[in-house]
Amino acid sequence: MTLGELSCNCCAASCRFAELKSLSEATGCVILGKAEHLNPGLSVKDRAAAGMLAAAEATGKLTPHSGSGTIIEATGGNTGVSLALMAASRGYTCILTMPDRISAEKKATMRLFGAQVIECPSVPFSDSRHFYHAAARLAKENPSAVWLDQFFNDANWRAHYCGTGPEMWSQAGHALDAVALASGTGGTIGGLSSYLKEVSPSIAVFLVDPPGSGLKGLLEQGRFVPTPGSTITEGIGTGRHTLNFDVARPHVDAAVTVRDADAVQMAHYVLRTEGVFLGPSAAMNVMGAVMAAKTLGPGHTVATVLCDGGANYRSTIYNDEFLKAHGLSGAAAAGAAGYLPDLDDALQYSAAHPGTATE
Ligand SMILES: Cc1ncc(COP(=O)(O)O)c(C=O)c1O
Known about the structure:
Blueprint: H1 3-9, E1 17-19, H2 21-27, E2 30-34, H3 45-58, E3 70-74, H4 78-90, E4 93-99, H5 104-112, E5 116-120, H6 131-141, E6 146-147, H7 154-171, E7 178-182, H8 187-199, E8 204-209, H9 215-221, H10 243-248, E9 254-257, H11 260-274, H12 280-296, E10 301-305, H13 320-325, H14 329-336, H15 343-352
Parallel strand pairs: 2-10, 3-4, 3-6, 4-5, 7-8, 7-10, 8-9
Antiparallel strand pairs: 1-2
Helix pairs in contact: 1-4, 3-4, 3-7, 4-5, 7-8, 11-12, 11-14, 12-15
The protein binds pyridoxal-5'-phosphate (PLP).
Pyridoxal-5'-phosphate (PLP) binds at residues 43-45, 76-79, 182-189, 234-236, 279, 281, 307-308.
C-alpha cells in the first residue's frame, strides 16, 4: 500500500479520543472529544469520503489507477478536501462544487490537491445556482462521471456505523452516557447514533444545531422550521431533508441550538486552556457536549466529535477583522482569557428557540 492509499484505506483507524479536562472539571462530567481533526485529510469527512469511494469501487463505478474515472461532489469544503486527497492517491479526476463563502484556506487546499473547484453563489437551496444543483447539473452533463452525493449516499452514515462508532465505544471503555453531535449531511450523527443505540440503548443522543438551521425544529415540531439568525460555522445545519439525517432521526433524544458567539468563545477557550485548535463546528459540538452535561448533571460521560481543526479558519474565527465584522470579538477575547460561555444562559437561549416559522 502506498502512503497515498493509506489516507483512503486506513483513515483514522486509530484516531484518538481525548478528555477535555477543564470542561470535565467545570461540569462534573467526563467530556470526551473524538479527534477527527487529526485524520489524513484533517477532518471527520475522511470517513464519508473513504466510505463512498470504497462503495463506488466495490460496485465497479470507479476503478483505481485505471487512467480514467471522474468524481463529482457538492461539498461544504471538508468532503472536498478529503476527496481531492483520495482522488490523487487513486488516479481520479475530482470536480467539486461549493458555496463561495467557504474559507479561502479550504478552497486553496482542494486546488493544491489537484481538484477542480467550482465556486457557486451562497444562495438558498431553492435557488438553481446553489452548489448542490450545480453538481446535479454537472453529473447530468457528464454521464460517465460518478456523483457521490454525500447527502443521500448510504455509504456516508455506514462509514460511521462501521468505523467511528465502534472506535468511540471501544475507546470510551464501553461506558458512555451521551453524545452531542451537529449534522451537515447527517452521516456522522446517523452512523454514530445507530451504532451507539444498538450497543447501549440508554445512551442519550443530543443534536447540536447552529442558528438558522431547521433540524431542531424538525425534531421538535416534525417539520423544518429554522431558528432565527444565520451561522458562521461551515458544513453543519440544514433546512432540507437528507437520507443520512433520516437515519439519525429516530435515535435523537434532544436538540440544542448553539449560538455562534458561544461556539467562538469555546474555540478560543479550548485553544488557550487545553491546547486544542478547533474549527467552528467542532467548537459548537464541544459547546453542545457541555450543555448536554449540564442538562444531565454531574457524574456522566459525554462524548462529541472534533470535526476539524482550526488551521482552515485562520481567516475567519481566528482573524480579528472577521471577528469584528461578525460582532464576535468579545466572545473570542473572553474565551482566550479563560472564561467559558455561560451555560445556564446558553441552555435558556436554546430552550426559548425551538424553531419557529414566524421568525
Ligand atoms: C467542518 C464540518 N463539520 C461538521 C460536518 C458535518 O458532518 P456530517 O456531514 O457527517 O453531518 C461537516 C460536513 O461537511 C463539516 O465540513
